[in-house]
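Issue 218. Parser rejects a valid record. Input:
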Amino acid sequence: MEENTVSKSKQKRDERAHNAATKKRNERIARIVGIVIVVALIALVVFAIVRTIIKEVNTISVSGDYSAQLEDNGYIRGVKALDYVTLCDYKNIEVPSGEVTYTDEEFREVIEQNLAAHQVLKEEGEVADGDKVNIDYVGTIAGVEFEGGNSGGSGYDLTIGSGQFIEGFESQLIGHKAGEDVTVSVTFPDDYGQEDLAGKPAEFAVTIHGIYADPEYDDDFVCAYYPDMGSTVEEYEQALKDEYYKSSLEDYVTTYLTDNSTVDKFPNKYLRNVESTTKFSDVQSYEYMSQMYQQYGMEMGSFDDFIGMTDEEYDADVIDRAQQDVKADLVYQAILESEGITLAETDAETEVKEKYGSDDYYNSSVESYGKGYTNKNAVRDKAVGIAVESATVK
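Output the parser choked on:
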């Protein structure tokens, strides 16, 4: 009996010892787990902070200071371009003749476009698809005039088939004559921008004032509209060809210079500033488009919708565009450095004014973009001019 009692007492002591050991072990494990969790949380916080810092460093800022890293004469501030770019052989560029001369078809299109730009309104003829007509109209729904459906008697130029008006409107004018009054019946689309008109049938009382026609292509046309290009058709056509030759040659050489030169490295400060101004230009475009949409009662959407890319894709696109612009600036400046030319600020200003217009244009550009960015045009034009002068057309 006593032995059995001792045995049970020992068993209880062993259980208490075991339980105590287990408790200590669990407490020790809990402490370790707690430390691990705290360390992990600290690591996560540190990671988040570091990630934020990295993101802020890598994020492209927005700046409208286009001239921040430019001297007033248009050169990149503190940069010798020849240290950054390897130039192509800019004095021996060969230009294919087909790049600087019109094809017969292209030349005919230019003549036709210029004639169309000076069409005259004739109060005769029958409306055909593709004609430009001048009309007035008054729109009604159930006999009641609606807002925005009246041309106000001021005359409206409409090209038939352009799709400017509601589907069916333009086609119903075909076959009618100048001077005729026509009733046009249409139905507004269900998704039309004005809720009070969407899906509703309407009638328009239309007056066709006349049909536009090309003027006669003769010497009188040249004298009337293009006196600076000659007094005869022959002189005018030669002037067109000469103008095309000059602009196409400059375009070809400009593209050749950047495509065939190599940037060895980028000047970091200037590149970062161009990235910032590139993004600023995009934001301005978005804001302008947003205002235009609002005028018509529509929503533009967010800036992300406007650019149609993820943040990472957009930043990569901005960087790529900025690098292309900086490369071109380096190439132009490097050509002038190779030629031993340093433009004075006054010379750059004079050249820009002569090529691009009056003092008003120059002053407006300086106000918007700064003197360095405005005078950068002179650096480009002088560099391209050097290459064009020695280019060979074959």
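Fixed in the parser; the record now loads. Confidence is low (pLDDT under 50) at residues 1-10, 32-58.
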